[in-house]
Amino acid sequence: NPDLRLKEPEQLQYFALALDALVRGAALNDITATIREVLTASYLPAEKDQFLRWFLGVASLHISPAPLLQLTKTATDNGMTGKRRRDFVAWAVAQAERGEDPAYIRRIYEAVRRVSPAFNFQIDFLAKCYDAVRVGASPAILADAVERIAKQESVPKALDDSIGKILEHFNAGTPLDEAVQKVAPDAAK
Description:
elongated
């Protein structure tokens, strides 16, 4: 499709970013799928360019841009557009550039969006979780807890309160997995 053909400077730029990601271990299928999906999505041209730079850049750090691509698609399907979506994706990319695994960001976002359609709540909730990750909380344990609580709670305040209690215990010195068990015990344990 000629409409999807990149201009020559963009071809070189994205080739360099993709090559860097491949050298660092990214899967070729993830890179090509990312480029194809971003170019065929209904994003504005400036967004396509920015998202490709971000996703391919993160692939250099995290092997796969797929979680960020999926996060962006989910946010878009949820109704997030324009500046709000760019700011949200920029926040997620900043977390990934800091060393966080975008797969956990995606898992937490997907759980919280099922409980609340409000973008501000979703973004504030993610920020709250990643403030805790920044001080040592395991993103894997936190993502598991958010998913489990989101299945039990249908009210945003209840989800936020439960995670708030877990983080209070964690900040008081309780290991995160124990804090999760105190507030939202796993039925399998």
